[in-house]
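May I ask for whichever protein you like with its backbone structure tokens?
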Amino acid sequence: MLNYRKKEAWDLLVEETLSFAQSTGIDGIQLDNGQAWPQIMEPDLDELTRKDIDGESAYTPENLMNGEIVIRNENHGYWNSTSKDTYANPFFVKLCRALWAMKP
């Protein structure tokens, strides 16, 4: 599963969508279950802040920031925030802008 906390994952999905649109000649897409995109899982803070037996952190600060370890089947992020009521889904904005730039 891609970690949608990372910009690289968003870029990869947009690039693959654009490649698919270009190769097939389509000018739009339908995202089934679009309300769940991007699926961002809640970070497992207990695991990410765990100390090894030698007293050192088991994970780096970068791992913690990126939420490398998640709690399975727990949605977190945009769709569980108050932003969803006032601001468009940033992933949809990125995807639509890229598609519209390629196929106005």
Q: What stands out?
A: The helical segments are 7-24, 45-48, 61-66, 90-102. Residues 7-24 form the longest helix (18 residues). The mean pLDDT is 84.
